[in-house]
Design a protein that fits this description.
Number of helices: 16
CATH superfamily: Aldolase class I
Number of domains: 1
Order of helices and strands: HEEEHEHHHHHHEHEHEHHEHEHHEH
Shape: globular
CATH topology: TIM Barrel
Number of strands: 10
CATH class: Alpha Beta
CATH architecture: Alpha-Beta Barrel
Bound molecules: zinc ion
Radius of gyration: 23 Å
């Protein structure tokens, strides 16, 4: 009879006992993610996220005041949004005036990633049986053989078709698109390509120098990075608010990627069109230089008063580099919340509209984790903890709660955050708006599942509504 379960859930109190550690009402556990735009007095709706807005620094203060003082908001996670017009302007200005000799400062100048680049190219020449559906690959000195990128017409190979579907899904995730093959319609609706000023760069190289200029001229400067301007204001107005800063480069790079690339990378195909799909396997990431600037950005946030930096870039070794750089500059008190288990996910779609940071070519699968990989996630978390992460994150939340459980069992010593990402938020909102589910019940179930998996910290766009009591999420 031990297989019978109903007796153990036949009463309110018994059900509560089954959930006794699943209390989802601790307001201190909820973090509000916020997009901060560069116009201090602007508030802009985000079409793909009903009820979510981009706030300029001044408007963010107004928005937060009742949340902090009346409803108990204790923590925010801040994302800067840089306009492409600013990027283009700065890039043009600095190109004209630049002294290229000062491209990389101190540690970055000693951090050539060229060995990795060579490995990337070497591996690209040893393709396997899925050549027909792989993205354009670089051949000699940037030449692209368009033949190898064409899907096999009429192919009956289910593995090839499976890969093709994957490309479609990931292309949609990027906000770009891949046209359906002539003999086979697209398996999912493909949105139209985004308006993209950087397509005007067709035919040019991705330049590390250009991106370094953008990072140094924008990400590290108050004039262009609105989060740098907002932190001191928050510090004064809300002294007890926990300020977490997302740390990444993608808001500021010309490519929209979370990293810098080596100079010689081609971002275009033989026809001069920006690449829109496929893996970055053939594009050498300038990993150490990227880590250097992530650490520099972390220090700038720390200088202005943030409590926690949260690197979301997924570069190798960035936690160690950031920890060292923070300590060298006297910021031992600043904690690191690492996006350790951040998976390449279709659920980031609305976020990319919110931050204008969809990649200009390729996708992020070469540095974000493959959705099917427990092993890499476990390795990434272990490495980040060893390198100095104080908290680790699993992102997205709902589809990856098994990973949260894995981590909570392996590392009971470290609090785990889940990020209920933009797609998860919008999915619930839109479904509820269409009357197909009860948002109150669905959200309660999701939050309970986060708790059940072992998550302590919940990063959610629902935080304001939860704090205001607009949902009844008390556990049964
Ligand atoms: Zn990024």
């Amino acid at each position: 009879m031990s297989s019978n379960l109903h007796q153990a859930q036949s009463h309110d109190i018994l059900r509560s006992w089954q959930s006794q550690r699943f209390d989802i009402n601790h307001h201190k556990d909820f973090v509000l993610p916020m997009f901060i735009g560069n116009d201090d007095d602007a508030v802009e709706p985000i079409d793909s996220m009903p009820g979510v807005f981009r706030y300029g620094a001044n408007r963010a203060l107004e928005y937060l005041e009742p949340l902090v003082y009346s409803f108990g908001l204790r923590s925010v996670l801040l994302f800067p949004v840089a306009t492409k017009a600013d990027k283009m302007k700065l890039s043009a200005e600095t190109k004209n005036n630049a002294d290229d000799s000062d491209e990389d400062d101190d540690a970055a100048s000693n951090s050539s990633d060229s060995p990795n680049s060579e490995r990337s190219y070497a591996s690209s020449s040893s393709s396997g049986g899925t050549r027909e559906v792989m993205p354009e690959r670089l051949l000699n000195d940037g030449e692209v053989n368009d033949e190898v990128s064409k899907p096999a017409v009429g192919s009956q190979n289910p593995f090839l078709n499976q890969n093709e579907e994957e490309h479609h899904l990931l292309a949609c995730e990027q906000g770009g698109g891949i046209e359906g093959t002539p003999n086979r319609p697209s398996p999912v609706p493909v949105p139209p390509p985004r308006a993209n000023e950087h397509n005007a760069r067709a035919g040019g190289n991705v330049s590390r120098k250009e991106d370094v200029r953008l990072i140094k001229g924008m990400a590290l400067k108050d004039k262009y990075n609105p989060v740098l301007r907002l932190i001191p204001k928050l510090r004064v107005k809300f002294p007890k608010l926990l300020i977490i800063c997302d740390v990444c480069l993608c808001a500021f790079t010309s490519t929209g990627h979370c990293c810098l690339f080596e100079d010689h990378v081609k971002a275009t195909n033989a026809s001069g069109q920006a690449l829109k799909h496929g893996s970055l396997s053939y594009f050498p990431i300038s990993n150490n230089t990227s880590c250097h600037y992530l650490a520099m950005l972390s220090v700038e946030y720390a200088v202005r008063g943030c409590d926690v930096v949260a690197p979301s870039d997924m570069m190798d070794g960035r936690i160690l580099t950031i920890r060292q750089k923070l300590n060298e500059n006297g910021f031992n008190r600043v904690a690191i919340l690492s996006y350790s288990a951040k998976f390449a996910s279709a659920f980031y779609g609305p976020f990319r509209q919110a931050t204008n940071n969809a990649p200009e070519f390729g996708d992020r699968r070469a540095y974000q984790l493959p959705p099917g990989s427990r092993a890499l996630a476990i390795k990434a978390v272990k490495r980040d903890i060893e390198q100095g992460a104080d908290f680790v994150m699993v992102k997205p939340a709902g589809p990856y709660l098994d990973i949260v459980r894995d981590i909570s069992e392996r590392h009971p010593e470290i609090p785990i955050a889940v990020y209920q990402v933009s797609g998860e938020y919008s999915m619930l909102k839109v479904a509820a708006g269409a009357g197909v589910l009860d948002l109150n019940l669905a959200l309660r179930e999701m939050l309970t599942a986060f708790r059940r998996s072992g998550a302590t910290i919940i990063i959610s766009y629902f935080t304001p509504e939860l704090l205001k009591g607009e949902f009844s999420v008390a556990s049964d």
